[in-house]
Amino acid sequence: MKYEDLLSFLQHVGTDPSRLIFEDELTGIHNRRFLKSYLQHKVPWDSLESRPVSLLMMDLDYFKKINDTHGHDAGDEALIWMAKLFKEASGDQGMPIRYAGDEFMILIMGADKKAALQVGEQLIQRTHEESLHLEEKDIDLNITLSIGVASAPDDAKGPKDLIKKADIALYSAKKSGRDQVADAGQIAPQQVIPKEAAQKLDKVTLAGRKALFAEVVKALKKFSKRQSQFLIIEGADGMGKSEFLRGIRQNLAKSKIWKIGLDGAPQEVFRPYYMTTNILIEILNQLPDKGKGIIEDLTPREDNYLSYILPQLGEPEDLSHQDEETLREQIFTTLIHFILKLIDSQPLILLIDDLHYSDDATLLLLRRLMLRRDITLFICGTAANIHPDKVEGRKTPLEQFISTYQKELNINRLKLSPLTTVDITHHFQRIFPKISLPENFEKDLMQITQGNPLFISEIQRKLVQDEKVTLAGQQWVIKPLEEGYLPKSLEEIVSQKITSLDEESRQLLEHASAFGEKVSLSMLTGSSEGKEIQVQEFIDYAVSEGLISSDFQMNDDTIRFLSNRVLDITYGAIEDDRKKELHEQIGTYHETLHEQRLLPSAAALAYHFQLSANQEKARLYQESLQTHSNKIFNTEEAISYTGEKLPDDVSEDIPLDPAGLAHIPVVIRTLLTTVRNIKLYPPGSKATVKATQQLKETIDKVLADNERFNIMIVENAIVANGEQLDITKFKSVGDAFMKFLGRLELSGIAFSRGIGENELMVMLESLSMV
Fold first, then answer.
1. CA 554 to CA 42: how far, in whole Å?
2. Handedness of CA 85, 88, 93, 96 (dihedral sign)
């Protein structure tokens, strides 16, 4: 069945399904992916009062010493032995998890703090009573544990907070001498200052952006009044564009309006419709049935046109009898109507990071959607500083689009400017409330960083890691800094972090940078051929160092560099031969995913082989992509597309079956009644809602055995799918309908199977305005 390939693609796009396992390779117990997925999908966070959940976080004391003294095989034996102990201690309700190298957890559903602490104490006792015997060395190892315990709802209200609280408790147990259990609710603040300070760096801050947020709010108010909006957030690298977009998304989190978040991808090199494909993927993944019902209702010709953009639907049929210009227009039109069907013509919010990598085809398609009356669109994208009027060099699609359509679409460009000294103070105070800063600290920081938020955040992280940020009583303070302590450039501070990595971690960082700004944990693991636990340890360290961020979604972690500038510095430090080697390795790896139809296109392969030594493969993939791109899109033609005419797979003149034809007078009568009610009563009133529902029910009866139907006025007669109606039995209604269409200057109205109630309401509201 065609849908199965697409479903597999939707479930695994951007991931490596062969690596999406929930079991630790070494110990056989659950892994971190299982824990995060379970916390996200299985724990009822809104109803924990009657059924609490507890988390024990622990690591082996002095584990490095075991590896250094007895070798890594002995270390592995110790981990396997401990995992067995955790299984036994977990009981029926507990779930043992290997979280990182020697770091384990036990998640216990239905256990309060007291019960969880008892489990922790029992584990401590067992390690005192039992030892690990190493057969090869014929020695016994006495292993002890440090354990931190946190419970929800007592200590935390959500999954991330629960892990953080257990982590702080573990830190306290280790600082207090190891071989003990610490309760997250009983920790003295002074014990865990460095850990708390480090965790506070995860807090999103948007100091100095109040005025810009006000502009976004203003645009959202217009959007709520059915006015489409297009905002572009511009700024140099490190100015916080992505962070600003995340702030908008967080503020919209509780809204029930369709929200789609996506990223521009330089690897796609402006391939036509690649961003449209990503929009479709996000929408389909948000639908309860992944769009199965709508896809199965597509006409064969619509299905065929979509397969040029979503090849998982199957190979496109040979349409050699159709000229290529018509083919390109029908693909464009089909995409517009497919999107409208998927969202049922409801308002749509698109939040697009790195919009400057958008493609011509998607931008022109979004323009057409914005100009329609049956959908309201809010587009907010981030972009590097744009110069639409530049003369030298080729304009990017976004630059050309702004030059041409800024006035028509009322595109609002918002500039992210450098932070001021006052903003810098607020930036610190949002993370560390009421922090006391050294004299002239803000001015010194301003002079060094030139107000670049990323550079400021990196210095902030350095202060925390060097324990320069501490608590004096109840107040956060920054200790006096030695002269020359602050780095002079962002390059300096990032390069120092890269240098501090061990060889294995540096290679993984280089591998991630060759992928680009964003890559999943499973794909980084698969392409580097490493063990996931080792890759995860690298990620943890790189996150703590402020090189990358990690976010868990869809059973996999998404890893991305903190900014394009950090990516550029990291990638720029790699030797040329090493770069070619990495790109060929990634390109070859991508080929295996492409063969399984798990990539949107071969664009990533062409990109990576182009940067490798394998120019023959680069040429083959580039030629294939160019041929396909030319077949599906032409910019000069697309400028004139309206997107209004649906593909004509089913002729409008196919006669209706007798049962459908008998319902046409009822459709006309109900349509006129509904439009009248919309004019008379306020939106959402019982009269308008009921009338719309009745009209849809009547339309659905006609469409039950007919793909679509139209009601036309031809030479003062009413015609349904080419067949003239006898209106003698409903003459007054028929005359009213002809006058109604005459006032609207319409020759007819058409309905297709699958029309949604919201889509119908939008159409009726438009008809009622005349």
1. 14
2. positive
Pair type for strands 348-353 and 145-152: unpaired
Q: Check pLDDT > 90 for residue 197.
A: no
- ∠ CA 100-105-110, nearest 5°, is 150
Q: What is the DSSP string of 626-649?
A: HHHHHHH--HHHHTT----SPP-S
C-beta contacts of 760-767 below 8 A and 24+ residues apart: 760/692, 760/695, 760/696, 760/699, 761/692, 762/345, 762/373, 762/374, 762/375, 763/374, 764/671, 764/674, 764/675, 764/678, 764/692, 764/695, 765/678, 765/683, 766/373, 766/374, 767/675
Rg, C-alpha atoms of the chain: 31
Contacts of 731 (CB under 8 A, 6+ apart): none
CA-CA distance, 646 to 620, in Å (whole number)? Answer: 35
The strand pair at 103-109 and 94-98 is best described as: antiparallel
Task: Please give the share of the chain, as a percent, with pLDDT higher than 90.
Answer: 68
Q: Is residue 719 within 8 Å of 673, Cβ to Cβ?
A: no
CA distance 679 to 709: 26
pLDDT band at 650 (very low <50, low <70, confident <90, very high): very low
Contact of 337 with 306, CB cutoff 8 Å: no
End-to-end CA distance of the chain: 46
Q: What is the pLDDT averaged over residues 231-259?
A: 92
Helices (H), 130-158: none
Residue whose entry in the numeric block shows the structure tokens 């050309």: 400
Token pair listed for 208: 């100095």
In this structure, the chain runs to a length of 770
- pLDDT band (50, 70, 90) for residue 269: confident
Average of per-residue pLDDT across 680-703:
87
- Residue that is written with structure tokens 């619509």 in the block: 302
Rounded Cα–Cα distance for residues 186 and 105 (Å): 20
Q: How far apart are CA 180 and CA 717, in angstroms?
A: 89
Confidence (pLDDT) at 322: 67
- Going 45 to 47 to 51 to 52, the CA torsion angle's sign is positive
Q: How far apart are the C-alpha atoms of 56 and 33, rounded to whole Å?
A: 17
Over residues 403-424, the pLDDT tens digits come to 999 999 999 999 999 999 999 9
Token representation of residue 286: 């948000």
Residues whose CB falls within 8 Å of the CB of residue 142, separated by 6 or more in sequence, listed in order: 127, 131
- Give me the amino acid identity at 386: I
Distance CA 443, CA 456 (A): 12
